[in-house]
Amino acid sequence: MTTHLAGLPALDWTNGEGHLTVHDDGSIQLTATAGVDWTNDASGADPQHGATSLAFTVNDDFQLSARVRVEHPRTTFDAGALSLWADEDHWAKLCFEWSPQDAAMVVSVVTNQYSDDANAIDIDTAEVWLRVSKIGPAFAFHSSPDGRAWRFVRLFRLCTDKPVQAGFLAQAPLGDTATATFSDIRFMSEGLTQLR
Predict the structure, then answer these.
(1) CATH number, domain at 79?
(2) Residue 123 lies in a domain
């Protein structure tokens, strides 16, 4: 089912319909079911693509950002994320994730057959702003404490000619559920001019 939110392109689910709540203030909540994730483990463990993202098809340059909060109690690796999806071997996500050390982190994963998984920074607040941008053939991830001053996370390509979908994701790899709220959602149909 297509979802229409003010200021965003039309959104569809990438892997079956997920659990979505739309609030009057324009924020959305995604609730992950038990055990869902996206991972193509570089060490050779079985891939996992049980999560679903709510996303739009990427065409030209854009910027998509949101303030992300994940409800407590949290379990290891649960997250709210901004996502890019082409197929099971070509995708990326920028996560507000819970670590094995019981701390919140910004984590990015870029997958071209296998996942390149990298921790960025620890977060000592209940929320963080995340941003994904398309810049020509490349994509950029940034995070921010306030939605104004942005910190560079990574620049990369997805090595595929397939259409890419950008949007929102909740995951709960080891837990029963995870609920992520995305608020202050901003979409601009223009590319970044200042990468760093």
Answers:
(1) 2.60.120.200
(2) yes
In a domain, residue 60? The reply is yes
Structural domain contains residue 91: yes
Looking at residue 186, the DSSP 8-state letter turns out to be: E
Task: Supply the range of the domain harboring residue 116.
Answer: 16-188
Sequence-distant contacts of 10-13: CB under 8 A, at least 24 apart: 10/56, 11/54, 11/55, 11/56, 11/167, 12/54, 12/55, 12/56, 12/165, 13/52, 13/53, 13/54, 13/55
Task: Decide if 195 contacts 44 (C-beta within 8 A).
Answer: no
pLDDT per residue as tens digits for the range 33-91: 999 999 999 999 999 999 999 999 999 999 999 999 999 999 999 999 999 999 999 99
d(CA 141, CA 145): 14
pLDDT tens-digit readout, 110-125: 999 999 999 999 999 9
Determine the Cα–Cα distance for residues 49 and 68; give it in Å rounded to an integer.
Answer: 22
Regarding pTM above 0.90, the answer is yes
Q: Is residue 1 part of a domain?
A: no
Number of domains in the chain: 1
Chain centroid to CA 17: 17
Question: What's 39's DSSP letter?
Answer: E
Contact 32, 48 (CB under 8 A): no
Spatial distance between the Cα atoms of 128 and 102, rounded to a whole number of angstroms: 16
